Amino acid sequence: MSRKILVVDDEPNIVVPLQFLMEQNGHDVIVAQSGEEALEAVSKYNPALVLLDIMLPGIDGFEVCEIIKLNPEWKEIKIIFLTAKGRDVDIAKGMVLGADEYITKPFSNKQIVECVKKLLEE
Amino acid sequence: MKVKHKFDWFIIAYAGLTALIFVASVPLIWYQLSLPEQHLFKNILTRNAVYFLGGGFIILVGFGLIIEQMFRGYIFPIRKLSEEVELIYSANPSHRVGLDGSLDFLRLVEHINAGTDQFEALQNNVSKQIDTAMAELAKEKNILAAMMAELPEAILICNKEGQIILYNTQAKRFFNEQVVRHNGGFTVLDDGSRSPDYEEKRFLGIGRSIFELVDQNVIQHALDEMHVHLDRNEENVISSFVLTAKGNRLLRGRTVPVLTSSREFSGFIIIFSDITQGLRSEARAEFLLHSFQNRIRHSATSIKSAISIMQEYPEMSTERRIRLTDIIKNESTALGQLIQRDAEVALEQPKKEWPLVPVLAADLIDALRRKAADILDVTLSVENSEDGGWVSVDTYSMLLILLFMLERVVRNIGAKQFFCSFSRTDLFVHFDISWKGESVKLAQLREWESLELHIGKEGLPLYFKEVLDYHSAEVWPQHDPEMDDLSGLRLYLPVFKSPTSDTSRQAAVLPDSRPEFYNFDLFNQPGQTPDLDDCLLADLTFTVFDTETTGLDPGGGDRIISIGAVRIVKLQMLNEERFDHLINPERDIPAETTKIHGINIDMVRSKPGIESALPMFSQFVADTILVAHNAAFDMRMLQTCEEQTGIKFSNPVLDTLLLSAVIHPAHEQHNLKEISKRLGVDVVGRHTAIGDATTTAMLLLKMIPLLGNMGIYTLKEAREASQKTYYARLKF
Q1: What Cα–Cα distance (Å) separates residue B627 from each residue in B427, B469, B636, B654, B698?
Q2: Residue B483, pLDDT score
Q3: Which residue, among B286, B291, B297, would best test binding to A if mutated, counting the most A CBs under 10 Å from its CB?
Q4: Which of A98, B17, B258, B616 would suit a FRET pair with B47, their CA atoms being 20 to 30 Å apart?
Q5: Hey, are the CB atoms on A13 and B327 less than 8 Å from each other?
Q6: HSE, side-chain direction, 13 A CA sphere, residue B586
Q7: CB distance B301–A14 less than 8 Å?
């Protein structure tokens, strides 16, 4: 099942392996490095899932999530937070905004592949 | 009535009475005589009229002279003697009676002076013993003062009305001459007077109110909290808060109640510590720790991901393999540098300076409900909340956070009715505030974060985000999918596991006997705005002042060039709390006046004008009784500045010149020099404003007991007695 996946992170060293991993699993990958770029990409490519970092230049990941989930056209898009912010309160905040999963760095490739697969099958 | 007048009236009455008796006796004798006898009597009288009248006159004059001598020798000096003896026993034991009079009177004076010698010797002996004891006491006080001065914390002890009883050097550094800003121009008050809007300085001092220096709401909140602790008989009665002081210092205040031996609240101690620097390093350490953690997580993710991919896909292209190897190499190098550079600082345990104390979640919400109704006029219903347990907060600033959120929702969304609940997880207590209507967006929350915490008249000069961060708290929009029209905000506060505090303090209980080193009589001071008229002079706070001027004609353009003042609180002159300022009169200073006060135009050219000095003076004298020698002149000088500065002095006024005339009506001289000599006061710095003010203050301290001997105890009695004296009619 090939679906479009948007990877949002400003760290190229994280994006490169992720992009390769998703491509190897048969997905089309679009990359954005800031909150603004992410929203543009959502509007342009309508991805099925977003791998979203929280600490981004400009609009942060929380706000990108809120905007996507409050838009009726986009609310079906699955969102996985991939973040170094591992505090309980950060996870709670992410989930309150409607994120589907919250994975803290460092994560394993297996964990992320399985999570993407599960969400896309729903 | 003056004694001289009494004597004149006595002589007139004496002569009149004698004449009356003589004239009345003539008809009585006449009608008892037979006709021949009457004839004979008439002849004798007619023939010897000259002798009779002459003899009568001589007897009259003789008696008059004898009586006058009696008055001069006994009556006149006795009146003065009474004043002088009172002077010796009440104010100046070195004074000796030096009056003239009859031999008997002089013998009496001799005996009195001999008795006075003995009295003085006895008093000197007692004084010496008192001095020795006082020196011991002073030594102990100095040790205590030195210890207090060395403390890094500022200590303020106040009575229950908030009047300061004791403060230390640090307190002076944090609070004295704190500047409070006002807008420009004037405000017209109800009584028509104008209140100037200016930048004013607040003074720290014994007997002054703590509320002039520190936001009353903050202290009131701490006191309320303290009373709750006391009512519940809790072991830890400390109440903490944070406020800003001079120089943008952030101070942590801890309030401890002082109880009487019967456990009645009689005052409080506030201990302030400067947490500005500590918080800065804490914030820096936390920042480094977070960035350190984030960097490690990023690098670990990249390395872990790259290695897994290389293992899982061994057939990948060389180009991709090199790219992944580069990632591993770069991230490993970055990690090494990060540890080298930041680890030591970042891992340093941050000091927790913000005074977070354990509070029951339910108590916090209850306080919020009351404040929301009072300040914002909104209703807050607390619903089906579970046991929220304890949270770790600075209650005042956390209440402001919650109020600020409500106020923003009221302002932006228009909600008036709120629902509140709280629940608890292992790590956080969630406070949910919800309302019917539009929700708050993240972008709005971001805007709030950079706003200062101000709600109506209450507030702190700290940012919303800053206070949240100090509490490790977060605020987040909350949406319940089952109730579409209900929006909310959730405050995450870290759970406080154990309600015991390491900064626990018990109430200070005063012993039955007086404290050893300090006079804490101010604990028993009546309210802050008592009916001053009925206050005892011994209980009042006085500002004794003097002005030096360019001349003696206030109405003719003479200006103030110096104001000096000292404070007296409960009969104690506070040498530390003085006001001594030169003022630029913006006109010339005549050479003849410079000869008197020694101030020339060069000395005042760079000094502030009256428009800057008078607001400061007005602050210095606030809530005290003004005292000056010949106050009519100084008050008139101040009055001439009213228009220019907009400042009106409406404090009650006492005049030592008039009080002296009340105490010693028989003496004609009441100038500063004469009274000082009479009352045994050493004149300091004559003709400087601060010198004359100090001398006047010492005179006032001598006069208060003398007034008491005359039955004059209260301010009203002193004022009324002053008004009756001759000098009260003196006007400038």
Answers
A1: 63, 52, 14, 5, 11
A2: 65
A3: B297
A4: B17
A5: yes
A6: 8
A7: yes
Cβ contacts of residue B466 below 8 Å, gap of 6+?
Answer: none
Which long-range contacts does B69-77 make (Cβ < 8 Å, 24+ apart)? B69/B102, B71/B7, B71/B10, B72/B101, B72/B102, B73/B101, B73/B102, B73/B104, B73/B105, B74/B101, B74/B102, B74/B104, B74/B105, B75/B3, B75/B7, B76/B3, B76/B4, B76/B7, B76/B101, B77/B101, B77/B105, B77/B109
Task: Name every chain B residue with its beta carbon within 8 A of the beta carbon of A84.
Answer: 293-294, 297-298, 301
The answer to whether the beta carbons of residues B107 and B34 sit under 8 Å apart is no
- For B602: left if phi > 0, alpha if psi spans -120 to 50, otherwise beta; the answer is alpha
Q: For B420, list phi and psi in degrees, rounded to 5.
A: -135, 140
What are the chain A neighbours of B308 within 8 Å (beta carbons)?
17, 108-110
Top mean pLDDT of B63-77, B340-354, B513-527 is at: B63-77
How far, in Å, CA of B233 to CA of B395, rounded?
19
Q: Are B199 and B215 in contact (CB under 8 A)?
A: no
B182 counts as catalytic: no
Residue indicated by tokens 């706070």: B541
**Token match 């709280």: residue?**
B422
| B676 contacts B695 by C-beta, under 8 angstroms | yes
Phi, psi of B625 (to 5 degrees): -90, 130
Going by their DSSP bridges, the two strands B265-274 and B154-159 should be labelled as: antiparallel
Residues B677 and B667: their CA atoms lie apart, in Å, by: 13
- Determine which helix (DSSP H) or strand (DSSP E) holds A96, and give its type and residue range: helix A88-96
Task: Answer for the pair B75, B66: CB distance below 8 angstroms, yes or no.
Answer: no
Are B230 and B222 in contact by the 8 Å Cβ rule? The answer is no
Which tokens go with B232? Answer: 């519940």
User: Do B487 and B432 contact (CB within 8 A), yes or no?
Assistant: no
Report how far residue B459's alpha carbon sits from residue B375's, in angstroms, rounded to the nearest whole number.
12
Q: What is the SS3 assignment for B695?
A: helix
* Residues B622-660: tens digit of each pLDDT: 889 999 998 888 888 888 888 888 888 888 889 998 899
Report ipTM (2 d.p.): 0.74
Unique residue bearing structure tokens 């009256």: B610
CB contact (8 A) between residue B490 and residue A24: no
**Residue A25 belongs to a domain with what CATH number?**
3.40.50.2300
**CB-based contact B219:B268 (threshold 8 Å):** no
Q: In angstroms, what separates the C-alpha of A34 from chain B's closest C-alpha?
A: 16
What is the C-alpha separation between A80 and A103, in angstroms, rounded?
A: 7
d(CA B471, CA B494): 8
Distance CA B464, CA B57 (A): 103
Amino acid letter, residue B494: P
Q: Are B253 and B222 in contact (CB under 8 A)?
A: yes
Amino acid at A64: V
**CA geometry: angle B417, B421, B425, nearest 5 deg:** 155
Residue A8: pLDDT band with limits 50, 70, 90 = very high
Question: Who's near A43: CB < 8 A, 6+ residues apart?
Answer: none
Closest Cα in chain B, distance from residue A22 (Å)? 11
Task: Please name every residue paired with B243 in a beta bridge, in sequence order, or none if there are none.
Answer: B251
B353-379 pLDDT tens trace: 677 777 788 888 888 888 888 888 888
Whole-number Å distance between alpha carbons of B497 and B655: 64
Tokens of B359: 């509070």
Q: Which residue of A has its CA nearest to B425?
A: A88
DSSP B394-450: -HHHHHHHHHHHHHHHHHHH---EEEEEEEE-SSEEEEEEEEESPPPPHHHHHHHHT
β partners of residue B347: none
Please count the structural domains in chain A: 1
Instruction: Measure the CA–CA gap between A112 and A118, rounded to whole angstroms.
Output: 10
